[in-house]
């Protein structure tokens, strides 16, 4: 079904040490994807469906980054169909906070979302959605007219790639960032009141 993408995606999953699904879960995952498409009236791009089918856990153990022009961005994880940060839970979290032709598919450390186009005008494009510049927040402080519709608001969205597969291929392990963070140097301070509870 998604065989044209399978080899490339399996190679990418292996490169980043992501958990690969076994064949036994495919039927359940196909049903979950169909349910998402029907419930939210959208079409998941075929390459993204292949990723969802093949990946069980999209949390990166290494520092992984992507570029937009000359800027580098860290990516924490790509959402999968199961687990705590599953795709459905993330769609629900960001429903009505971003245009309906985008869904969140991954998260940066600061809460910005990597999104994919799921409607005709943005189909398969991959975008970065900045949470600091959300429409509702700008409406509340009077920066934007309260009649502005979320589906026409793109001031906090930037294109990363024209396809999901190109986006995956652009990801790289960022050794420089990994070297900068030495967990042995991290100190954790707990308030005494917290410890007494």
TrEMBL record:
<protein>
    <submittedName>
        <fullName>SMI1/KNR4 family protein</fullName>
    </submittedName>
</protein>
<dbReference type="InterPro" id="IPR018958">
    <property type="entry name" value="Knr4/Smi1-like_dom"/>
</dbReference>
<dbReference type="InterPro" id="IPR037883">
    <property type="entry name" value="Knr4/Smi1-like_sf"/>
</dbReference>
<dbReference type="Pfam" id="PF09346">
    <property type="entry name" value="SMI1_KNR4"/>
</dbReference>
<feature type="domain" description="Knr4/Smi1-like">
    <location>
        <begin position="34"/>
        <end position="139"/>
    </location>
</feature>
């Amino acid at each position: 079904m998604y065989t044209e993408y399978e080899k490339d995606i399996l190679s990418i999953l292996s490169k980043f040490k992501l958990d690969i699904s076994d064949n036994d879960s495919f039927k359940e995952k196909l049903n979950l994807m169909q349910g998402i498409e029907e419930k939210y009236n959208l079409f998941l791009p075929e390459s993204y469906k292949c990723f969802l089918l093949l990946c069980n856990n999209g949390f990166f153990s290494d520092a992984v980054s992507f570029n937009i022009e000359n800027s580098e961005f860290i990516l924490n994880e790509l959402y999968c169909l199961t687990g705590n940060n599953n795709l459905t839970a993330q769609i629900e979290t960001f429903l009505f906070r971003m245009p309906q032709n985008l869904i969140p598919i991954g998260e940066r450390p600061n809460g910005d979302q990597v999104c994919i186009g799921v409607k005709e005008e943005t189909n398969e494009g991959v975008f970065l959605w900045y949470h600091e510049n959300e429409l509702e927040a700008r409406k509340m402080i009077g920066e934007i007219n309260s009649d502005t519709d979320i589906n026409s608001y793109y001031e906090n969205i930037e294109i990363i790639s024209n396809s999901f597969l190109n986006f995956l291929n652009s990801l790289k392990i960022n050794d420089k960032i990994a070297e900068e963070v030495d967990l042995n140097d991290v100190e954790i301070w707990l308030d005494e009141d917290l410890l007494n509870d």
